[in-house]
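Weekly sync, protein design subgroup
Attendees: M.S., D.O., the rotation student, P.L. (late)

Item 1: inverse folding check
M.S. brought a backbone from last month's batch and wanted to see whether the design step gives back something sensible before we order anything. D.O. pointed out we never logged the input encoding, so this time it goes straight into the notes. Structure tokens as presented (398 positions):
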């Protein structure tokens, strides 16, 4: 079989080869350029490099760019279908940079109410502190978006599916409304992963990820990335990030590069496990409700069928016995580990009320659908029979 060198790589192959830069040594595995600075041949060349608008493959300081980090950025951009990417120290650094680099006092930002606790802090507390007007809407209510975007707006931000209640926002419809109001649409795509949802194809302008989750997938390091048009990534965003210091470590970039090689295999297997387990426990008498994107009983099932290419590795359910029942369930688990992370090769369980969303009042949590019995589980790569047995025995303890 011959390969046409002019044909673009498929998305799966992008995860293995995209963005590769080899040194003069011709190494097979990507090299770690674990350096904070770079040397110049002459004083004149140092001056020229600092004055350059586009450094290309030249570097001046690791906060501005690094060859290993650039490989990760290019590989993710190729996989996402974006023109460029900027890798950050964490997922929250990506969210902060994607939003704050675009706004100033007096601007208007519209966001979904259903956000991860730290995302909500950035949108609803920090932006307001700096004089940005913020409107929060029900993400699933298109009329609410229409009303909020009836005036000039700078940025629209939302998660889809949301953390932890798996609400799905109509990306195409909201993007159309946002663009009519002059807004840039930023989508947090962590729960769907780039495998199962492509926000840029649906009309979004910017996609952010916490690479700490499925992209690493093995609980080792922090990271994030912002993806979108080159004019934004290498313009306002890069300027903001290089001066505020949220850049990714070269070592973490190398770890994430190696993780990308197995991303599709891991996420497909984890999501299939989640689908099976959701069906297994959906009718358990201890549960009040269960939400999994891809099930026909999901409130946005029709939208999910149009917008997503698969489900998720995550399941959210509510226990009838409230927090006491949730704690009994969590403490009875043997294989699932109690933590606040997700997307790991190990199966994890989280109680959002005291962890990821603990800073919200009970009324605020209830408004988001997070009830006292709400538990979020992230399915790993263990045998599905073992995980099913663990869930059943823990539910029996409730």
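Designed sequence read out in the meeting:
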């Amino acid at each position: 079989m011959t390969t046409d060198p002019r044909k673009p790589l498929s998305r799966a192959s992008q995860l293995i080869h995209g963005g590769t830069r080899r040194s003069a040594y011709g190494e097979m595995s990507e090299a770690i350029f674990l350096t904070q600075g770079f040397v110049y041949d002459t004083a004149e060349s140092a001056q020229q490099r600092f004055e350059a608008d586009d450094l290309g493959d030249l570097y001046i300081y690791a906060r501005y760019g690094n060859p290993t980090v650039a490989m990760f950025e290019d590989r993710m951009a190729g996989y996402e279908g974006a023109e460029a990417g900027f890798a950050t120290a964490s997922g929250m650094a990506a969210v902060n940079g994607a939003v704050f680099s675009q706004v100033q006092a007096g601007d208007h930002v519209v966001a979904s109410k259903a956000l991860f606790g730290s995302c909500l802090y950035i949108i609803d507390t920090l932006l307001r502190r700096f004089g940005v007007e913020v409107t929060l809407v029900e993400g699933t209510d298109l009329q609410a978006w229409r009303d909020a975007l009836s005036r000039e707006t700078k940025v629209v931000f939302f998660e889809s599916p949301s953390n932890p209640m798996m609400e799905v926002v109509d990306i195409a419809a909201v993007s159309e409304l946002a663009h009519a109001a002059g807004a840039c649409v930023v989508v947090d795509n962590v729960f769907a992963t780039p495998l199962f949802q492509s926000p840029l194809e649906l009309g979004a302008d910017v996609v952010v990820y916490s690479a700490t989750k499925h992209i690493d997938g093995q609980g080792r390091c922090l990271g994030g990335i912002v993806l979108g048009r080159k004019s934004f990534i290498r313009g306002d965003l890069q300027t903001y990030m290089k001066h505020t210091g949220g850049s990714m470590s070269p070592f973490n970039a190398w770890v994430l590069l190696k993780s990308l090689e197995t991303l599709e295999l891991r996420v497909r297997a984890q999501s299939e496990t989640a689908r099976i387990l959701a069906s297994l426990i959906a009718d358990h008498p201890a549960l009040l409700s269960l939400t999994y994107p891809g099930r026909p009983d999901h409130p946005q099932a029709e939208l999910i069928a149009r917008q997503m290419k698969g489900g998720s590795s995550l399941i959210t359910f509510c226990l009838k016995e409230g927090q006491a029942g949730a704690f009994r369930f969590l403490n009875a688990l043997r294989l699932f580990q109690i933590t606040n992370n997700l997307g790991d090769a190990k199966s994890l369980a989280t109680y959002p009320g005291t962890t990821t969303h603990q800073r919200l009042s009970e009324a605020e949590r209830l408004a988001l659908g997070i009830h006292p019995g709400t538990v979020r589980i992230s399915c790993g790569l263990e045998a599905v029979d073992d995980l099913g047995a663990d869930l059943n025995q823990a539910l029996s303890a409730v």
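Discussion: The mean pLDDT is 95. The chain has two domains: 11-260, 263-397.
Action: P.L. to compare against the previous round before Friday.
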